[in-house]
Amino acid sequence: MTDPLRMPGRLRTALAFVFLQILLNGAFGVLMQVEMNREADHGQDPVAALQIATYISYVTVVAMLAAAVAIILGHGWGRLVLIAFEALSAVSGLITLVSGSPQALIGIVLAALVVATLLNKEVLAWFEAKKRARDGQPGAQAPRIS
Asked: Are the CB atoms for 29 and 59 separated by under 8 Å?
């Protein structure tokens, strides 16, 4: 019998994709910050849309990182936050795809895979087992074989 408190492998894989998204969002934010600084060094005012996109990128990194850590600790709220961010990512990807950028399909597929994983019965059972263990309720651990 498998340990219900052991994180399912598919959730680990999904979290690896999430950490990749966090890393890429952070890098994107840094690149936009560098561009804004370059414009400021040349006496130009950075475009407001670039400033907004930079700050949205940083906020997204912090929120997704907090959600991923919450998921690792077995807190269900992290799952909900991550589903919301992945849904926004999919919508953004659809807009980009319609605008003529076919590589956006990769982001849409990854977002769909992460959401599907977070809604998987095995993953939901793991969150429930973690909650029971935190609350000290019985049934949180696999029976011991003597």
From this structure: no
Give residue 144's pLDDT.
41
d(CA 60, CA 36): 19
Largest CA distance in the chain: 75
Segment 118-128, tens digit of pLDDT: 999 999 999 99
Q: Please name the residues in contact with 142: beta carbons below 8 A apart, sequence gap of 6 or more.
A: 1, 2, 3, 4, 5
As a whole number of angstroms, the distance between CA 17 and CA 114 comes to 8
Highest mean pLDDT among 44-48, 54-58, 79-83 belongs to 79-83
H or E segment at 10?
Answer: helix 9-41
Question: Do 71 and 78 meet the contact criterion of CB atoms below 8 Å apart?
Answer: yes
Measured CA angle at 33 (ends 31, 35), to 5 deg: 70
Contacts of 96-102 spanning 24+ positions with Cβ under 8 A:
none
For 127-146, the pLDDT digits (tens) are 999 999 988 876 555 434 43
Checking if the pLDDT of 42 tops 90, the result is no
